[in-house]
Amino acid sequence: MARIFITGSADGLGQLAARQLVQQGHQVVVHARNPQRAQEALAAVPQAQAAVHGDLSTLAGMHQVAEQANESGPFEAVIFNAGVYQVSNLTRTADGFPLLLAVNSLAPYVLTCLLTQPTRLVYLSSGMHRQGDASLRDLTWQERPWNTTQAYCDSKLHDLLLARAVARHWPEVLANAVDPGWVPTKMGGAGAPDNLTKGAKTQVWLAAGTDPAAHTTGQYLYHQRPSATHPQAADVAVQEQLLAAFARLTSVPFPAGAQ
Question: Would residue 257 count as lying in a domain?
């Protein structure tokens, strides 16, 4: 039995992963952006052990989530599921960041740095990461004209780069990124063609699987199999550039070794 924390688990793939894990007998802590949604998350997965709340669009909320999660005890695994997609306008958060960057990119980074280190980390990426901008230029969209699709692609590339950087810096941790497919969730839309149940299976397997194949690190997986990535996703210099940029933006340094 493992203890597992899942961000953004009030609905969609996060909730489905939570349900699959509790059915397997694991202890799961769910997360939502505010207390009301946290209670809804618990109601949807009544076997869950607890719920934490915090708005991952703000640095204060990221710290709040990390503090609550750490208070609830250490976790064997964390699934970074929270994300946003259709942000048609350049919506900036209280910290001045584009909403997509804050939730999809900076929140997984900050939580990775602040949570008591688990043995497994799973980052939700997307096949759209292949169209991401690996130059990491103008991360906060101060100069570029806003493009929702490009911003989303960029953020999903960030998640893969982060997973691979973590795998490299922390060899004692299994860190991987997952493409769940285009599945019919609130984010994906009712007409999405991929299988919803399979969309959560890989992250559940990586978080708690006992077979040797699940004990992998630095991988990008689609339905439990390695998948093609952006050509620069394995570039160590790009990974290091990302860590440095995120540390500068958030004022949260990346821990160099085991925490």
Answer: no
How would residue 193 be classed by pLDDT, with cut points 50, 70 and 90? very low
State how many domains the chain has.
1
Sign, CA dihedral 246-100-195-228, equals negative
- What range defines the domain where residue 210 resides? 3-250
pTM for the model stands at 0.94
- 259 domain-assigned: no
Rounded distance, CA 84 to CA 107, Å? 12
Q: Per-residue pLDDT for 1 more than 90?
A: no
Give yes or no: 156 in active site.
Answer: yes
Instruction: Report helix, strand and coil shares of the chain as percent, to nearest 5.
Output: 40, 15, 45
Which of 156, 201, 220, 222 is the catalytic position? 156
Task: Kindly name the residue from 109, 152, 220, 222 that is annotated as catalytic.
Answer: 152
- 201 carries an active-site annotation: no
Q: What is the CATH number of the domain that holds 31?
A: 3.40.50.720
